[in-house]
Amino acid sequence: MTSTKDKDEKMETLTDNAVENLITIDNIVDAVTSQIDEEDEIGAFHLFGVPMEQMTQSIVTTQSDLETVSEDALRSLSMIESDCLPNSAYSENEYGTKGPPAMALSKSMGGRMSTPYRQSGNAIDVIAVKSREDQFYTTSWHVMFSWSRFRSRTATGVGDEVRVLMNGKELPVKMSLLERGRCVFQSGSLTPPIDALANVELYEDNANYVRFEHYQRSTCCIRYVECRLYVWHPEESVIIVDLDGTLTVSDVEGHIRTLRLGQYDFLHRGTCQFFTKLHELQMRVLYLTARPLDWASASRNHLENAIQLKHVLPPGPLITNSNGLTGALLTEVVNKNPHIFKRQVLQEIQLCLIHAGRVTEHPIFVAGFGNRSSDVLAYKDAGIELDMIFLIDSTSSIKCSNFTCVGSKMYESYDDPNVLLWMLPKLKHRVPFEKVGKIDEYTVRELLYAEEREQLLISERNARAFQEEEYERIKQNSQVRSLEPMPSL
Predict the structure, then answer these.
(1) What are the coiled-coil residue ranges (predicted)?
(2) Which of 289, 292, 302 is nearest to 251 (CA)?
(3) How many angstroms separate the Cα of 99 from the Cα of each of 25, 69, 102, 162, 461?
(4) What is the bridge-based pairing of β-strands 121-123 and 318-321?
(5) pTM for the whole thing?
(6) Shortest CA distance to 455 belongs to which of 408, 423, 417?
(7) Please, are residues 265 and 306 in contact by the beta-carbon 8 Å criterion?
(8) DSSP structure class, residue 433
(9) Which one of 18, 376, 387, 429 has the fewest CB atoms closer than 10 angstroms to its CB?
(10) pLDDT tier for residue 11 given thresholds of 50, 70 and 90
(11) In 130-250, which ranges are continuous DSSP H helix?
(12) What pLDDT, in 10s, does the model give residues 95-134?
């Protein structure tokens, strides 16, 4: 009979082989797919020097060989563990499969794999509007797990069940994994039943953490995707904010610095404090961007980690383009119509509030901030008047999109109190009555701040003028002395 020591040695060897092979599969597939556009065969030829069909066959063959070795190793591991674990340990688990539980497998690896979880994919934030009957009308739940065209449907888990957890607790509804990593609820819809969240404890003042989990048999790990869910009420007033060039200083550079380099403070002056003030006025802030779904997690990290002089951005849902990278690029670069996508998103949000019982005649969307003419089109279609749509340029200068409006002018940046002083009187007529008192308080405060700031600017200008005069006087004196004859010895 095999000794316990021999079993441990065999188990460790087989486990190492299995894990290494599974990691190799992931590395090969990820390395290849990260270089190839989903539908760009010409790009594949230029990158690898072979046609897409030939390269695909080669990768699939390599993957198949590695998976065979890995399956043999895991099968042997299972046989060895059967001598150590009781039969009850092999009862059908929560995913409907036979085999050692994940914790047992983790322990058998000597603690090297403390958890079988792996983040893999992206999801768009969800807005859940709570009706008076405690029913929730939500926006679409766009979830996309990482996928590869070089893996079979079985390997990627098409048709598998996806668990949905809210603040760590599993919801009674589940999703199904489709082609290309997409998910839908088991009813086939992108939204859950209106009573699915009725008995779930949700935060109304803060973000709720949503987690989607998929057990992938081919890698013996649980992949997960995360997003946020925000509870709104039917009578909300919403401020729309674009990201690239609107929060960040510029479009392309802002994308590179925030998403690629993690420089989350690459923002226009006064951005965080300005939108925090609007949030304190009981306005909901909606971050709406034409970035693809593939960048949702990185964009969310940017919003949650942005900071300026101890001020952070207010919480709010992040809505990206539900298409992947290719579709988003077609929308933004080729078709040049991102306003159509944004208009559709805003219409969906509007319908959620109406279905939840909105009765006020005040508009849902009261102001919008962007940096392109397409943003103006989207906000205008959503019902925002032109005198409440603002455009910001790369110098941080802000202007109202309605150039003919009386009193409209160019403002220095978000930290200019005159921007709020322009907005506040107009907001009073666009929000429910209970929010008007707070707006009046902020108007008085901003007037005092504007006066103090103006006095400070005058003092700075006077000081600068004095310094320039002193510099010119010293310069002239030095020139006069240089022209004086040298004393004779």
Answers:
(1) 449-477
(2) 289
(3) 22, 18, 9, 19, 76
(4) unpaired
(5) 0.72
(6) 417
(7) yes
(8) G
(9) 429
(10) low
(11) 153-156
(12) 343 333 433 333 333 343 444 888 989 999 999 999 999 8
